[in-house]
Amino acid sequence: xxxxxxxELASVLCDLFGLAAAGADVTPVGRGAMGQVWRLxxxxxxxxxxxxxxxxxxxxxxxxxxxxxxxxAVGVRSPRNVPTPGxxxxxxxPEALGGSGVxxxxxxxxxAARPDAAETPQRLGKLMARLHGLALEAKDPPExxxxxxDEVDWEHLAGASAARQPWQEQLVEALPGLxxxxxxxxxxxxxxxILCHLDVQCSNVVDTDRGWVLLDWDDTGxxxxxREMAMALLxxxxxxxxxxxxxxxTMTAYREAxxxxxxxxxxxxxxxxxxxxxxxxxxxxxALDDAHAEHHADAEKRLINVLTALPDLATxxxxxxxxxxxDGGKGGAAT
Length: 335
Ligand SMILES: Nc1ncnc2c1ncn2[C@@H]1O[C@H](COP(=O)(O)OP(=O)(O)O)[C@@H](O)[C@H]1O
Ligand SMILES: [Mg+2]
Known about the structure:
Elements: H1 3-17, E1 25-31, E2 35-42, E3 45-52, H2 58-73, E4 81-82, E5 91-92, E6 101-106, H3 120-134, H4 154-158, H5 166-182, E7 193-196, E8 205-208, E9 211-214, E10 221-224, H6 225-237, H7 244-256, H8 270-287, H9 296-308, H10 313-324
Helix pairs in contact: 3-7, 5-8, 5-9, 7-10, 8-9
The structure holds adenosine-5'-diphosphate (ADP) and magnesium ion.
């Protein structure tokens, strides 16, 4: 986007959210799978703008905002959602600027939380215990993304051997691993479900001078505490070898703060496995979709990243073992 259209975007955003537009500016912050984030600066204040490139589910927005409020009341901080003058949380860009739904949040200054920082296990354990302690009822069913893997034609996605792109070569190598992950995927039991954030990872935590702030409540929905805990431990402490000490300390802090989820080697990793597989399949389809050529390069990059860091069953076992060690290896929650 040119300088001129940055100005245009800034002014339209101010208009949508009822801010004075004089001197407003936007700069790109990051591009995730679901959208583009901008920093909007206006009248000395800063906002994060999330442009949802694949549409916005208003029901999910309301669910996320309600969970954010409940979590705030128990000490889990998050950026304030800035409403439109009409009181909604989503604005719509004009077609000439892409037509996407956009949301505005107060900007949080600071680096992303680091898994290797000394205080991270303590903070993460406490944060998860507070979220799970709410045990809010999940009114909607879980997203299939976390629970099932559709029949995927991996051979088709991997392409013909003579004309494979680098990500497809990697996909071929990963196929046995993907199949063993698929064998772990099971739906959650309705009685085990509560409202979960479902995306607690370092890039969604800003380490501000007032402590951690949790971002990205867009995926809030039905989940199981143990599955969310397994997912968080994997994402924070198993991307470059398994950090057993950090896992043990996180679980200890989680228990001390009242967290009761217990990892079950047979069931707790199903959500992580399902989301990995669904992510790979979705990005591979996107990378091959002629109607979305503008997304191919990003999809290919994401595929290389995820296929390079694909978990295996041994990693799951190791994470589970370290997590259990805080309960004396017996797997019972502290009472
Ligand atoms: N309120 C905010 N304050 C500061 N940075 C933010 C804020 N919201 C988002 N960001 C930055 O933008 C990135 C992407 O935003 P996020 O809501 O996590 O979207 P995505 O769905 O792409 O992960 C975050 O990792 C963070 O670096
Ligand atoms: Mg995010």
